[in-house]
Amino acid sequence: MLAIDPATKLSFNRLISNGDLVIVYERHDNLKAVTVSESTVLQNRFGVFKHSEWIGKPFGSKVFSNKGGFVYLLAPTPELWTLVLSHRTQILYIADISFVIMYLEVVPGCLVLESGTGSGSLTTSLP
User: Fold this and answer.
1) By C-alpha distance, which of 33, 43, 16, 30 is closest to 120?
2) What is the pTM of this model?
3) What is the average per-residue pLDDT within 114-127?
């Protein structure tokens, strides 16, 4: 699970910096979680994307490769994180997570003990 410091909560106008986790949206069925490192590149069928060019851009930016292809750099929200996770185990999707949380009457301030060997998809959405 990601440990997020409350002082550095994500906002949609925050700029990408070195070491940030970014969800790279390549196509509607292809998203990747990438940690930004200034000296690294992402290579895919759309071209080569230099991480150094991502730094300083706001989340949601459209960036172009050397070949003219593009990807979107998105902030890691619980919904996107669920889509990015490896599907080695059965994961819960947003509709199922909403049902479970409402059925259990989990609200902010509740103490929830959750365990498992899965992907952590439900855990990312707990208040």
Assistant:
1) 33
2) 0.64
3) 80
